[in-house]
Write a structure and sequence with these properties.
single chain, about 100 residues, mainly alpha
Amino acid sequence: MLDMIRTLLFVLVLVTLVLSVYFSFRYRRHTDPKQRGVYAARMNICMGLMLVFISITQLFFFSDTNMRRIFGTVCLLLGFFNLFSGIRNLNYFNRYKA
């Protein structure tokens, strides 16, 4: 059961990494400022989720050291900040588009 959760978290990290890179390329290639904002917000959401998944992995599935706790906590805080700002910006640009 524990191995299945580790594998699932690893897959989720990879999926969010691929989506972050995809939205980053879309953001850089698009010329419309509204659409660029939507892609940047989606990239922030994916990056935030990826950081949260990494922090969960670091905090719960490896040996407990001070360095892992600090790294996991920093990743968790950065992930929640990215997730919050991405959702806020996505709501703003979706209202702006309509």
